Amino acid sequence: MAGEIMLQTPLTQDKVKKLKAGDAVLISGTIYTGRDAAHKKMVEALARGEELPFEVKDQIIYYVGPSPEKPGKPIGSAGPTTSYRMDSYAPKLIALGQTGMLGKGWRAPEVIDAMKESGAVYFAAMGGAGAYIAKCIKAAEIIAYPELGPEAVRKLTVENLPAIVAIDAQGNNIYELGKAKYRRA
Amino acid sequence: MKTIHTDEIIPVVERLCMEANYFLGDDMVAALKSAAAAEENPAGADILRRLVENAEIARSEEVPMCQDTGMAIIFAEVGQDLHVEGTGLTEAINQGVRQGYAKGYLRKSVVKDPTLNRVNTGDNTPAIIHYDIVPGDELKITLASKGFGSENMGGIKMCKPSEGLDGVINFVVDTVDKAGGNPCPPIVVGVGVGGDLEKCAILAKKALLRSVGEHNPDLEWSRVEDDILERINKLGIGPQGLGGTQTALAVFIETYPTHIAGMPVAVNINCHSARHKEAVLKGRDA
User: Fold this and answer.
1) CA-nearest residue of chain B to A83?
2) Model confidence over B20-55: pLDDT tens digits?
3) Across the interface, do A182 and B240 touch by the CB < 8 Å criterion?
4) DSSP state of A104
5) What are φ and ψ of residue B198, in 5° steps?
6) Same-domain status, B11 and B143
7) B163 and B83 share a domain?
8) Residue A185 has pLDDT above 90, yes or no
9) Whole-number Å distance between alpha carbons of A25 and A140
């Protein structure tokens, strides 16, 4: 795709501010994984006053539960899971400085409010392109909650992982804008 | 009367699990390519081309096309003149699923209790098995790996008969509209109309086993499939919900007679990784 923005993590505020809904990006660097059960555990840890398994400030969390890796590969197939299931947890992590979420599908208004308030971006990865995206993941390491299997928190090293800015830090939402543009009903 | 041993059934189910997840059907690949050519949103067309590439990687490297390798949904048609020997057919199917998901590096995505004890069963069992007793002496097994990004977006409505065809069409289109980008469009839409609460839901799932291009044999229902597809593709959802004209690749409707007081409608959405494979097992002379 032409005109893709090369985006290197950590996703600091200066980078957040420049991203606009609809921008195509290629993400490189370290990102972290977490989905339903890991988010529940992280938010419960915060409630008990404990530390999170990694520093979320300026980080991207990828909502993914990969399939098991074949021998010799860093990870199995690894496309995004549907993001709305993380909506009840995401604002708490955004308040702690998380700047990026990578998933698929719409978000609740509370998440978008939190993104606008603290400065965070929601990226859409290609849902169902698990084999394709796995090629962009060069290393993977479980860093917390191994008992959760596919839902364990992993630290990933990614290279040119393609995504679209779905909702920017101003609250512009490509799911609404794109749909309105092509709607004929 | 013919006989088959469950030891012959287990490896077949094991193979179907892997093949379903590695090899996207030719009909789906062709449909994705056509959609890429037709998509008006350039970003959407780009996604569709990458999805074709994704299917090619999965096929050549024998890895799952999607990390959500689903629950194993099985439709088993058991010939009434076939005798099954061994461990029991249900256990054999589950053993095949267990082996297929382990050997195939497929994700185990089943929890033990839906609410009170969401602990992974570790082997992707139990499968969901629908049995039909049919004439003949063969066993036909169709396996669909169904991800829940799309499954969660389905719905059921006990329509009033007075809602008529418009009621059916509006419920299907509304369900897809509300789902937006969540079920990984471009989607395939399975619809069950008639029967009762569970019959229409099973019909909607069964409809998803068709290949793109196959229509309901009834000409009028076939036209309804086309009408609904056209309406869905005017919603603007597009590939991955980012806007566009290619939201669904096919609409499949299955019907069944129903009660004078009812008109149940179920919608089961499948993502673009519409995975199903089948095998026919022949018995030996007893």
Assistant:
1) B182
2) 999 999 999 999 999 999 999 999 999 999 999 999
3) no
4) B
5) -85, -30
6) yes
7) no
8) no
9) 21
Architecture per CATH, A5-182 = Alpha-Beta Barrel (3.20)
Q: Same domain for B7 and B141? A: yes
For residue B106, being part of any structural domain is answered with: yes
Are the CB atoms for A96 and A47 separated by under 8 Å?
Answer: no
Range of the domain at B125: 2-21+65-147+275-285
Helices then strands, each counted (H, E), chain A = 6, 7
Does residue B95 lie within any of the structural domains?
yes
The answer to whether the CB atoms of A76 and B46 lie below 8 A apart is no
Q: Which residues of A touch B69 (CB under 8 A)?
A: 67
The tokens of B163 are what?
Answer: 């809602």
Cα angle for residues A37, B47, B149 (degrees, 5° grid) = 30
- Any idea where the domains of chain A sit in the sequence? 5-182
Q: Which residue of B has its CA nearest to A3?
A: B43
**pLDDT digits 0-9 by tens, B144-174:** 999 999 999 999 999 999 999 999 999 999 9
C-alpha B260/C-alpha B264 separation (Å) is 11
